[in-house]
Amino acid sequence: MGDPGGRERRARSVVIGEALVDVVSTAGSGHVAEHPGGSPLNVAYGLGRLEHDVALLTRMGDDEHGRLLRAHLAGAGVRLLPGAVDGDPTSVARARLDAEGKATYEFDLVWRLPQVQVPADVDLVHTGSIGAAVAPGADSALQVLRGVRGRVTTSYDPNVRPAFFASREEALARVESFVEAADVVKASDEDLAWLLPGEDAEAVARRWQERGPALVVVTRGGAGATAVAGAGTVHVPAPRVDVVDTVGAGDSFMSGLLHALAEHDLLGGAALPRLRHLGLGTLQSLVATAVASAAVTCSRAGATPPTRAELAAASAAVAAR
User: Fold this and answer.
1) CA 20 to 30 Å from 184, out of 26, 257, 262, 314?
2) Catalytic residue among 22, 98, 251, 265, which?
3) Helix (H, G, I), strand (E, B) or coil at 29
């Protein structure tokens, strides 16, 4: 599928989840910054930067914040599915930084999904974070994932926000319902430590993988990532990088992983049998690309994922180590 610029657009993807504006204020300075946010929005943006044909199923307001989000997404070629813009305000996450840079958050969130059919020609449906946690939108997202499972590749990143759950038990039940509807799952070691305190992250990943996904990856920050599939387990260390900040690194890892799956022709209904029989060499390559994607984002300020050329260079450097 081509685009107006003549580039070859890769896998057709739909990302489901929240699009919001982060409003960040710093104690004592009076400085306030606003920038696009939301894990699913970041994943969609990352896929767009990697030249994928990607649409975002979300909601936002017809207001200044909504216009900021739409301009940001358009800059990476990300389309909105119909019904995304409605009469309620765009969701906002207000972060207040103290003198040591620690943030406390308050959310003004409206999360529901428009009644839209996922296009029949997509290869991938991804969801996660608040969009897969807060009703009624989370219920709709789970229904979509279950409805398309088997004819497309489904993926999920819990990116757990404890404040949105009444209890750890409620959170775990919600997360595992999405795990069972996904072919690819990415979770951080921090997610697993909160959901299942005291349990070994790799053991949890194996247990989740046995519940349905073809692939479960656990990110470990500066220690890299561990991936579990039917063929076994691989560990990929993180490359050495001068870290500017880690904002958006997990989302960049996710978009890099999905990109790598597309590059290996492992997205779409016809590819599911191959995805379920990954060799360890391919698994290593997939995760190495995702780790490289996150490393690029850590090397610069903000949630700025790599372009395709940047990711190719970073992946080659990782492979050469």
Assistant:
1) 314
2) 251
3) coil
Mean of pLDDT values over 251-268: 97
Contact between 155 and 182 under an 8 Å Cβ cutoff? The reply is: yes
Active site residue 108: no
Q: Give the pLDDT score at 102.
A: 62
Nearest-5° angle of CA 307, CA 313, CA 317? 140
Q: State in Å, rounded, how far the first CA of the chain is from the last one.
A: 35
Work out the average pLDDT over 109-138. Answer: 93
Q: What angle do CA 158, 163, 165 make, to 5 degrees?
A: 70
Helix (H, G, I), strand (E, B) or coil at 88: coil
Residue 210, classified by CB atoms within 10 Å of its CB into exposed (0-12), middle (13-18) or buried (19+), is: exposed
Instruction: State the CB neighbour count (10 A cutoff) for residue 284.
Output: 16
Interior/surface letters 215-226, b for 16+ CB within 10 angstroms, e for the rest:
bbbbbbbeebbb
Tokens of 211: 């519940």
Look-up of token digits 């489901």: 16
Cα separation, 89 vs 60, whole angstroms: 7
CB atoms closer than 10 angstroms to residue 319: 12
pLDDT at 13 over 70: yes
* Pairing of the two strands 184-188 and 153-157: parallel
| CA–CA gap between residue 178 and residue 149 (Å, rounded) | 11
Domains identified in the chain and CATH numbers: 10-320 (3.40.1190.20)
CA distance 96 to 160: 20
Q: Which is nearest to 211 in space by CA: 236, 178, 239? A: 178
User: Which of 115-124, 140-149, 199-208 bottoms out in mean pLDDT, i.e. has the lowest?
Assistant: 115-124
